[in-house]
Structure formats: structure tokens, C-alpha cells
Amino acid sequence: MTFELARVIIDFGLVVLIWMVQLIIYPSFLYYTDKALVSWHKRYTFNVSLIVIPLMTSQLGLYIYQVLGSQTVFTVSGLSITIIAWMSTFVLFVPLHQQIANRQHTEFMLKQLVLRNWLRTLLWTGLFIWSLNDYLT
User: Fold this and answer.
1) How many CA atoms does the CB half-sphere of 15 hold within 13 Å?
2) Are 83 and 95 in contact (CB under 8 A)?
3) What three-state secondary structure class fits 102?
4) DSSP assignment of 68-92
5) To 5 degrees, how large is the angle CA 101–CA 52–CA 18?
6) Global pTM?
7) What angle do CA 21, 22, 24 make, to 5 degrees?
8) Which of 85, 79, 77 has the alpha carbon at shortest distance from 63?
9) Are 21 and 115 spatial neighbours (Cβ–Cβ below 8 Å)?
């Protein structure tokens, strides 16, 4: 497997995951009772971390490696997009998930989770399309 193909596969994995989160998982939080949401959320965050952490770490590592090898518009932009996705995860989403875990969530906050997640959805979708195009050309 080539480096470029591995990058496209990782980018695709994050696109599939983020669209599932955006269209199914986060919206479903509004349908749980408060007690059920807190209970489910604890299980969800642990299990999704088993998928998200390797994908995000691999993506970051691949883009860093790529930039170290060659600084092109694609490699620098790809790393920048990856860093923005990481920053948004830790700055915007970890605090919201902590609110759920601490039973401090509101319906408005759960709707914000869905609304704000469009940022990561668009970032990872755009990066995958660009990565695939870079691979195919």
C-alpha cells in the first residue's frame, strides 16, 4: 500500500465517521431522557474513542510526514485543515461532551453540538475530496 493510498483511506474513514455522527449520533441525543443520555454518552464516548483516536492520530501523522517530505499547497493545506479539525475537537466539542457527562446539558446545548459539528463535517469532507483528487492525479 502506498503512502498516498493510506492517507486517502484514513481521510475516508473520518468522513464516514463524521457524517454518521452528524446525521445520526448527535441528533439522537435529543431523544434521550437526561438520565439515559448521560448513561449512553459514557458508553458512546468510550467506544467512539476507540475508532476516533487511531484515525485522527494517523491522519495527523500522515500529514506531518507529508509536509516534512514536500511543502506543496496540498500538503501544507492538508496539515492545516487537520490541525483545525483537532483544535475544533478540543476547543468546541470536548467541553460540550463534558457538560453531558456532568449532567449540565440543555436542549439548546445539544442542538449546538449538531450545529457546530458542521465545521468538522465540512473540513473532513473537503479534505477527503481534495486528498482523493490528489491521489488520482
Assistant:
1) 17
2) no
3) coil
4) HH---HHHHHHHHHHHHHHHHIIII
5) 90
6) 0.94
7) 65
8) 79
9) no
Q: What is the pLDDT of residues 42-64, one digit of tens each?
A: 999 999 999 999 999 999 999 99
Residues 38 and 40: their CA atoms lie apart, in Å, by 6
User: What distance in Å separates the CA atoms of residue 128 and residue 122, rounded to the nearest whole number?
Assistant: 10
Mean pLDDT in residue range 72-84: 97
User: What is the SS3 assignment for 106?
Assistant: coil
Measured N-to-C along each axis, helices 73-88 and 34-69 cross at an angle, to the nearest 10 degrees, of 160
Residue-range domain boundaries for the chain: 3-132
Residue 42: name the closest of 108, 100, 113 by CA: 100
pLDDT for 1 beyond 90: no
Supply angle C-alpha 55, 59, 64, rounded to 5. Answer: 150
For cell 448527535, the residue is 26
Say if residue 12's pLDDT is above 90.
yes
Residue with cell 517530505: 69
Q: Are 136 and 74 in contact (CB under 8 A)?
A: no
Q: Locate cell 448521560: which residue?
A: 38
